[in-house]
């Protein structure tokens, strides 16, 4: 295990120099499992953030002028250096955000794969050539060259739950396309993000091409989002924060990956054993602290009793707590998050939900809880719990299930469990979500698949190829011959 020293301050990056804040002020990072300080990160001022943005903007044209293969080679070297740091970064993810050690290391390895794929895919972008005579009044002597050019300076804001993977999924597409980057990690997860950037510096990052800003959102959040030299924002996090950023960003492109209330819709002809296994994995992995976690089960009443029993059997065998490497349910990120889950459970109980299984409650460690006979008047039926509790909503027909889901304010993903693939296609067409999984749990990956949300779940499309596209804009050169 990594030795923790509460006085350790992990410096931030400015022009390839590791620095603290001029004031010496820091933000402590507390471990979810024992609430001890893992380390501290600099609490930058608005003036210090402004300096970082200015430097990143100054070098953008030079970075864009680099040959594409040079940018690609940097990313390949980054992936190599990241893999060398798998143990170190994996341990920090474990300490900082409460994942098991194996999950932390797995995230680092997956991130290296994502960076390599981005390095290759980024070399395949291309523009187009348009003949003018396709439109009345124009002639073949008028031609258009449509080029793909970077936005400029990209602000990448990452979440706590995947502090390395979801940071790199923003940074790598930005760099390969010639953008420079201001990286703002979530406070919880910031140290893991800084270690990831250490690997990028070791790989040969040119000075100023990526700078990191850390600090209190109340001080630097709105300042950086509205900074006049920021040309694009890519953000993963809560829906309320995402909406706020979108309003503040005004005229610049914004890509948002926000919350979800992903349902598992289980039909009468489903393989209930398979459905139960996928639902439990989808709902309780990392204690449900994922935007793509299954957050409610909409099940046909005639098979509900059997499904609930199968899910209960699997959940009862789950291991709880970070002291065990095979733990499925680990402490929640903080007490506030745990209190919100407890509130939703208590509300459902008071309104008549059947508590099929209830886990331990020890500060921010919550064991898995199953709620049956959840009705629409209960908050858990609609609010994103982001924790280890799973509500079952019983319906009488497929149409009722579809209509219930369509009233959901979120639209990230949905799962449909059925043996009738033709019916699965028909239901999929009627669901207003970004992705429908057939006979599988809701999930972000594979990382090269398009990933998106509609309604309050997001704006824009991610996934390696789509993320690269989002980092580019059209620039048209018209030739009048």
Question: How would you characterize this protein structure?
Answer:
α1 runs parallel beside α8. The longest helix is centred in the first third of the chain and has 21 residues. The protein has 481 residues and is an alpha/beta fold. β10, α9 and β11 form a beta-alpha-beta unit. It folds into 2 domains: 268 residues, Aldehyde Dehydrogenase, Chain A, domain 1, CATH 3.40.605; 192 residues, Aldehyde Dehydrogenase, Chain A, domain 2 (3-Layer(aba) Sandwich), CATH 3.40.309.10.
Index terms:
481 residues, alpha/beta, Aldehyde Dehydrogenase, Chain A, domain 1, Aldehyde Dehydrogenase, Chain A, domain 2, 2 domains, 7-stranded mixed β-sheet, 6-stranded mixed β-sheet, 15 helices, 38% helix, 22% strand, disordered N terminus
C-alpha-based Rg, rounded = 24 Å
**Mind telling me the CATH superfamily name of the largest domain?**
Aldehyde Dehydrogenase, Chain A, domain 1
* Beta-strand residue fraction: 15-25%
Which regions are unreliable across 5 or more consecutive residues at pLDDT < 50?
Answer: 1-6
Total strands: the figure is 26
Biggest β-sheet: count, sense, barrel?
A: 7 strands, mixed
Mean pLDDT: 95
The largest sheet has its strands arranged as 14-17-18-13-12-20-21
Number of helices: 15
Spatial shape: globular
Helix content: 25-40%
Structurally, the number of domains stands at 2
Class derived from helix and strand content: alpha/beta
CATH fold label of the largest domain? Aldehyde Dehydrogenase, Chain A, domain 1
What CATH architecture of the largest domain do you see?
3-Layer(aba) Sandwich
Q: What is the level 1 CATH name of the largest domain? A: Alpha Beta
Please give the alpha-carbon distance between the first and last residues.
Answer: 68 Å
